[in-house]
Design goal:
It is built from six helices and eight strands. It is of the alpha+beta class. The strands form two sheets. It has a six-stranded mixed beta sheet with strand order 1-2-4-5-8-6, sandwiched between helices. A two-stranded antiparallel ribbon has the order 3-7. A hairpin with a 2-residue loop joins strand 1 and strand 2.
């Protein structure tokens, strides 16, 4: 639990620093949400300092965050899917390969757990990152206008959705 709290505090600091969330929305100074219990967190450290983090969310009765944040049209969620979210690296350590290392780690984790697909809600820039570094086909999921429930789900990081044109994607990870 202490490790999860430390990672969630790190993610909170990065997200507040980037303006994705308001510090007032998370008085615990940890970015935890209803998906935290279904999440596996991975993080990178230099010495004792956390410098990067990502989480993979396993399916649960809550469904997946991106599934809840968008109105999917004509899309059947594949079996053996998990969501990748909260990928972040401290500004001071960006361009050091930390995000790539974190993604490689969750890739290997996914393979050991028989996860074949990743669901992500992200910007076009990060979509290209996945395509470039992993050679993975990143397929856009068709969506319709969001309903109130979708907008409420986006409220957990409303500034992220405003700052970037976030869209849902599905990735088939290769063996």
């Amino acid at each position: 639990r202490e490790e999860i709290e430390a990672v969630c505090s790190f993610i909170w600091r990065v997200y507040v620093g980037e303006g994705y969330i308001s510090s007032d929305d998370y008085p615990t100074k940890r970015l935890e949400d209803k998906y935290t219990p279904a999440s596996i967190y991975f993080y990178a450290c230099i010495g004792e300092k956390i410098v990067g983090a990502v989480r993979i969310i396993l399916p649960s009765k809550l469904k997946l965050p991106t599934e809840n944040a968008f109105n999917f049209l004509d899309f059947n969620m594949p079996k053996r899917v998990a969501e990748v979210s909260k990928l972040c690296v401290d500004k001071e350590y960006r361009r050091n390969g930390i995000s790539l290392g974190l993604l490689k780690r969750i890739y290997h984790y996914s393979k050991t757990k028989n996860i074949d697909y990743w669901l992500i809600g992200t910007s076009a820039k990060l979509k290209r990152y996945f395509e470039t570094f992993f050679g993975i086909d990143v397929v856009s999921i068709p969506t319709g206008p969001p309903g109130k429930e979708h907008l409420a789900e986006r409220g957990t990081a409303k500034n992220y959705f405003k700052k970037y044109s976030v869209k849902p994607y599905i990735l088939k990870i290769k063996s």
